[in-house]
């Protein structure tokens, strides 16, 4: 048991009587390496909170033999933020994504149902999602739906992961989640492997939800897979209502992606692959 007084540390080894085991240690006699020094004010020590560590050094001070060990990349403390603009003859799309956000949704794609689904991606993934898109929706929603997904996939890997993390050190890489929405139940499993693959098993009973063509759901996720390079499996375990099935899919995908992009503190900055590299080659 350790107690703190105003000017000293009170240490009480359990093997001695209370009277004989009380001893005072003057902080001024303790010399710490500069990289490990901290305030000697007892109130600071008593209420010290765990801190995210970028690196630490073990050894004899600055000139010791210790080597730095990365626990959580510094990018996590400032947010992994990526943005991309995609302009074609058919669409104009801008996407900004913060993987370490708080769930802020700000999307306007001119496709109301898609905006609603992007809100689910933000809320359940705790990503900050900002999307602006315009396109030839007077023809149909196909091109805008596709290009928004292509841009999101690009941001997820090329901007947010590859640029902010370098070679994706320390992330979990794998993510899976199951989520219900009333009668619908969806399972999503994904791998940020650099190898694009989609297995899609949804049985959506209606051709449209509002004006949204339900065939575009598969196309949306195929587009994300193509540009992100992830392996993605989507499985419907139950469901009869088209809106519920689709919304549960986006919620579940968000949760699985959140798991995959979060840091694994036990990896200490290593790449989550026995090959030592994650790439599309």
Structure commentary:
The chain is of the alpha+beta class and 281 residues long. It has helices spanning 42-46, 75-78, 112-125, 142-165, 215-228, 242-261; strands at residues 2-4, 8-11, 23-26, 55-56, 69-70, 81-87, 91-98, 105-108, 128-135, 174-181, 184-191, 197-201, 208-209, 212-213, 231-238. The chain has a four-stranded mixed beta sheet with strand order 6-7-9-8, covered by helices on one side. A four-stranded mixed beta sheet has the order 10-11-15-12, with helices on one face. Strands 1-2-3 form a three-stranded antiparallel beta sheet.
Give the uncertain stretches in residue-range form.
Answer: 1-25, 32-72
The span between the termini is 56 Å
Strand arrangement, largest sheet? 6-7-9-8
Apparent shape = globular
Whole-angstrom Rg: 25 Å
Order of helices and strands: EEEHEEHEEEHEHEEEEEHEH
Compute the average pLDDT.
Answer: 76
Number of strands: 15
How would a crystallographer describe the biggest sheet? 4 strands, mixed
Determine the structural class based on helices, strands and strand pairing.
alpha+beta
β-strand percent reads: 25-35%
Share of residues in helices: 25-40%
Number of helices: 6
């Amino acid at each position: 048991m350790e107690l703190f007084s105003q000017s000293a540390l009170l240490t009480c080894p359990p093997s001695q009587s209370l009277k004989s085991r009380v001893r005072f240690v003057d902080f001024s006699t303790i010399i710490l390496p500069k990289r490990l020094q901290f305030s000697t004010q007892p109130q600071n020590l008593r209420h010290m909170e765990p801190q995210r560590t970028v690196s630490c050094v073990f050894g004899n001070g600055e000139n010791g033999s210790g080597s730095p060990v990365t626990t959580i990349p510094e990018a996590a403390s400032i947010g992994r933020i990526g943005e991309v603009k995609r302009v074609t003859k058919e669409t104009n799309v801008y996407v900004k994504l913060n993987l370490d956000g708080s769930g802020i949704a700000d999307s306007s794609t001119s496709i109301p149902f898609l905006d609603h689904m992007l809100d689910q991606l933000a809320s359940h993934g705790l990503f900050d999602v900002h999307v602006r898109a315009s396109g030839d929706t007077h023809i149909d929603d196909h091109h805008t739906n596709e290009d928004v997904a292509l841009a999101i996939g690009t941001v997820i890997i090329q901007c947010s992961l590859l640029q902010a993390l370098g070679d994706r050190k320390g992330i979990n890489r794998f993510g899976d989640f199951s989520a219900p929405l009333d009668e619908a139940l969806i399972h999503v499993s994904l791998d940020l492997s650099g190898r694009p693959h989609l297995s899609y098993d949804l049985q959506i009973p209606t051709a449209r939800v509002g004006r949204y063509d339900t065939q575009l759901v598969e196309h949306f996720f195929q587009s994300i897979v193509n540009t992100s390079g992830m392996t993605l499996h989507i499985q419907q375990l139950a469901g009869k209502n088209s809106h519920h099935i689709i919304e549960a899919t986006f919620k579940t995908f968000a949760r699985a992606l959140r798991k995959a992009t979060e840091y694994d503190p036990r990896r200490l900055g290593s790449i989550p692959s026995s090959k030592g590299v994650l790439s599309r080659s």
